[in-house]
Please model this.
Amino acid sequence: MSEKSLEVNECLKLILERRSITFFDKTKEVDDELLIKIIELASLAPSSYNLQPWEVIIVKSKENKIKLREICFNQEKIQDASANIVVIANYKRAINNIEKVINDAKSKGYNISVDKNLIANFYSINAKMRAVRDTSLFAMNIMTIARFFGLETHAIEGFNEQLLREFLNIEDYKEIPMIIAIGYKDPTKNLLPRGIRFPFSDFGKII
Ligand SMILES: Cc1cc2nc3c(=O)[nH]c(=O)nc-3n(C[C@H](O)[C@H](O)[C@H](O)COP(=O)(O)O)c2cc1C
Model:
């Protein structure tokens, strides 16, 4: 087997093994450095014009996890997980990043023919959608990369949005696509088999 195909198989393995983990090991902590490493690697995700609209707030202390669990309709996994990554899409951050991103690209030899205002105008058409889309790609990366480090995750959309905004001071113009609970699996418990996935013929076509 060539080195290349081995890499591909390793990558597929991470995707095949990822599940939404309901049972986290309450006794095992994840180091802050590892969380930050996973998040920085996840930011290798593609984004429109490389503007990287994402922000995260990591909820980790016992007290804050208890509060977040209440906001997430009492979902136990929030408290059992080592940490919860609140994933935020901020289109204003993307627009603020334009200058830095253009300067960096130019310094690396990219031929940038559009100016800052043109990109800002383009991005501003449906800016929230763009920010949520790119932030969701980043979020998926977090879940896949977590597997590489032997961690498990669970994406959560079951939260009271207003209470979450109040708790973390998240402004109304920002979107919150999901929270990612992250930690180690409780080895004494087993998940049910993975839920149905539909075949290509159900949702795709080749033209
Ligand atoms: C954005 C998003 C939000 C989700 N929110 C919840 C949630 O609030 N509670 C929950 O139990 N599962 C939640 N899930 C998990 C899905 O139910 C789960 O991904 C799906 O059933 C497929 O299972 P698998 O991830 O193990 O393959 C969410 C998944 C995604 C992608």
